[in-house]
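quick one, 434 residues, struct below
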Amino acid sequence: MLKCDSREVKEGDTFLALKGQHCDGHDFIEEAIAKGASKVIAERGTYSVETEIVSSTREYLSHYLKENLVPIKVIGVTGTNGKTTTCFLIWQLCWMLGIPCCYIGTLGFYTKEKKRDLKNTTPGSLELLELFQESYQEGCQYVVMEVSSQALDQGRVDFLTFDYAIFTNLTQDHLDYHLTMENYLKAKQKLFEKVKPDGISIINGDDPCSAYFEKGNFVTYGYSSCDYEIEGETPTFSINEEEYQMHLFGKYNIYNMTAAICLFYQLGYTFQDLKDSVFKCGSPEGRMDVIPYGTNKIIVDYAHTPDAMENILDCVREMDYHKIITIVGCGGDRDKSKRPIMGEIATRKSDYVIFTSDNPRSENPMRILKDIVKELDSVNYEIESNREIAIKKGIQFLTNNDILLVLGKGHEKYQIIGTEKIFFDDKQVILDNI
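---
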């Protein structure tokens, strides 16, 4: 098997030495050989195993990927929020309608059921190729995949063309990587440049940035004047006057479900084909995951951007409740400018907030928390850097008909503290303490 990462090399693999922005694969050839590589493909050097010298290892990889790509339809979904849920809904609907489909994204790799976790939302090119090949061998006709802005910027999907591309929305995130919203937007646009000439783009027409994605063959969806016009709120809403019901909460999930439904309209399915399956669809793990606790509700959700947090708070404020308690933090080594924004939203839309650690990584957790609260005028919050203690406190604050939101990590089963990935599961902590 061809590998570009020496850490992943196994006995008998071929190691391809790629030159990247920050490191050169040629520096890791000996490590790859020590791990069992039986062949090396490089631009220079002499080695103790079979060696092939090429003018450009990056060009070699590009040819290899295209030559080994399997004939499978590809659906790409990009946007700040909603990628995971939209993809997961499409994956569910495919199987309900008898279309074998694989899902690749934040939740992992699924064919008919979950197979394994993935390191990245959008894996590297070689890993993607292997996932496509595995899916095809298992009979999958479609791949639905989350396509992150970083993956687009780094060329991880350059070897692919897309049959369908979906744009969900664009709000502030990942500015630690892209530096500006303009760069972030340009990265997202790259997906729509890779749609096949006879392919279709499906665009959230309500998003202020929608015009940047309306190229080639496209349709729009939204509450405003769109090709697929939405009316109503959950649990009952309509698209072009055809009424659907679903179990998912919130207006943002109407957008996610509508994007999925629009895809199936483009595939030739009708309202009659879809309505029962839409009603049966469930949320992905860690997305609006409701745990009853007496007369109260505890909700675990992955919301970790200002827009996502505002959406879920707006959603729960429409429920019948006495008070809303929110537990939230911000990740370390990531966009610092969103921290005070999230602090303001949380305190404005909650009755009480416990700010805590998310994945602090190399940053001091207290420094992150001070950034979150530094511009706050309100006093309806406290700081507890230990996430487990914060969750226990939140549970203790519940009285009668209250809602506790535990935000930021959702399905994740770990915390990254320093360089260590430590087991931590929000939902399990909750279940252990109710």
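The first strand starts at residue 2 and ends at 3.
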